[in-house]
Write a structure and sequence with these properties.
This protein is mainly beta and 310 residues long. It has a domain at 136-257: Jelly Rolls (Sandwich), CATH 2.60.120. It has helices spanning 267-278, 292-298, 306-309, and strands at residues 8-12, 15-20, 23-27, 40-46, 65-73, 75-78, 81-84, 88-92, 101-103, 109-117, 126-130, 136-139, 145-151, 153-154, 157-158, 167-175, 183-187, 194-203, 209-214, 221-225, 229-232, 238-243, 249-257. Helix 1 (267-278) packs across helix 2. The N and C termini lie far apart (38 Å).
C-alpha cells in the first residue's frame, strides 16, 4: 500500500445546464466548493447538426487560465487542432488570445474541460495536442484495472501533459476479472490537496453504488453512484477503490492539483465575465487580485461565468 489512504469528504450530483441549443454541460465542480487550483471542470456534449451559428464554444478568451481538454467521444476542433476520441490538449492562454471548440462531424461529441489557474500570464497562446497513442497506460497483470495517465506520474510513467501548478488527470477503468472483488490503489501524494473523482460510466448503468472509496479503517467506506462526484480528503498518500460486486466494469475520471497562492487567481477574468453577463461597463482592472476568492464564493451561479469557462 502506498501510504495513508484518503477518505471521501462529500459526494454530490453535478449541476446540469444548457449553454446554447445543441450544447449541454455538466458542472463537475460544485459552486460551493473551493478546489484550488481548479475554478471549473465540465463535461460538455454537443452535436454539429444542433448548433446555432453563435454559441459559447465559438471563439472566446481566457486570460489568466490554462485548460486541459480530453475528448472521450467523437471528433472536435480545438485551438485549430483536430482532436479525436482519446486525445488530450493542454492550452495556456495569453493576452487577447482566443480559442474555440466545435465538432467536426455529425456525430455527438463528448469532451471534458478542466480549468486551472495560471501562475503567470503569457503574451501569446500556447497549445499542444497529444494523440491517444501518446498517453501512458498502467495495467494490472490480470487486466482488472487500466489507468490512462493524461497528466501526472504513476509507477515511473508520466502523462504527456505538464502544468504549473502541478496537476494529475487520470482515466481509470476497473473490471471484475477474478472471483474476488476488484480493488485498486492509486498513489496520490499529499501535495495534491484538491482531489475530485467522477464516475463517468459503468456497465450496466445502476441506480445504486458503482464504486467504493475505502479508508484505513476497514469498517468505513463511501459508495459513489454513476454520474456522481466525490471530493476527497486533502490528507493521505493514495486512494483505494473497490468496484461494487454487482458491477462488471466502471470508468472513473480523477483530477488532483496543487493549490496556487490566492493573489495569482485572475480576479479581472471573473469580473469581466460577470460584467459581460450583466451588460455592465464596470472596469475589470479596478478589482484587485486579492478580491478574487470573494468573487468566486459570492457568485450566485456558475452560469454567470459560462461565457468564459467553456
Amino acid at each position: 500500500m502506498s501510504g495513508p489512504l484518503r477518505s471521501c469528504v462529500r459526494c454530490y450530483e453535478p449541476r446540469k445546464s444548457v449553454l446554447a441549443e445543441g450544447v449541454k454541460c455538466l458542472h463537475l465542480i460544485n459552486k460551493s466548493d473551493t478546489l484550488n487550483p481548479f475554478p471549473a471542470f465540465h463535461l460538455i456534449k454537443l452535436r454539429l447538426s444542433e448548433l446555432k451559428q453563435h454559441v459559447p464554444l465559438s471563439k472566446h478568451t481566457h486570460k489568466g487560465l490554462q485548460s486541459v481538454v480530453y475528448v472521450t467521444k467523437g471528433m472536435a476542433l480545438s485551438c485549430d487542432q483536430c482532436m479525436k476520441s482519446g486525445d488530450v490538449q493542454h492550452t495556456q492562454f495569453g493576452l487577447d488570445t482566443h480559442r474555440s471548440e466545435l465538432p467536426v462531424s455529425e456525430d455527438e461529441v463528448e469532451l471534458f474541460k478542466l480549468w486551472i489557474y495560471s501562475s503567470s500570464i503569457l503574451t501569446r497562446i500556447s497549445s499542444c495536442t497529444h494523440s491517444s497513442e501518446d498517453i501512458s497506460v498502467v495495467r494490472e497483470e490480470d487486466n482488472s484495472a487500466e489507468l490512462r495517465i493524461l497528466a501526472g506520474s504513476v509507477n515511473g510513467l508520466d502523462g504527456p501533459i505538464e502544468t504549473e501548478p502541478s496537476t494529475c488527470f487520470f482515466d481509470l477503468t476497473l473490471s471484475q476479472i477474478r472471483s474476488t472483488v476488484t480493488e485498486y490503489v492509486l498513489p496520490l501524494p499529499e501535495r495534491y490537496s484538491s482531489v475530485l473523482v467522477y464516475v463517468y460510466d459503468s456497465y450496466p448503468s445502476p441506480t445504486t453504488a458503482v464504486v467504493h472509496v475505502l479508508t484505513d479503517d476497514v469498517s468505513i467506506s463511501t459508495p459513489i453512484s454513476l454520474g456522481s462526484v466525490a471530493v476527497l480528503s486533502p490528507h493521505g498518500e493514495s486512494v483505494k477503490f473497490r468496484l461494487d460486486e454487482r458491477i462488471p466494469s466502471c470508468r472513473l475520471l480523477i483530477v488532483a492539483g496543487c493549490p496556487v497562492p490566492e493573489d495569482v487567481i485572475p480576479a479581472e477574468f471573473l469580473v469581466r465575465a460577470k460584467s459581460m453577463h450583466e451588460g455592465s461597463s464596470e472596469d475589470a482592472n479596478s478589482v484587485s487580485l486579492s478580491e478574487s476568492p470573494r468573487l468566486l464564493t459570492e457568485a450566485s451561479t456558475l452560469d454567470e461565468f459560462n461565457i468564459c469557462f467553456v
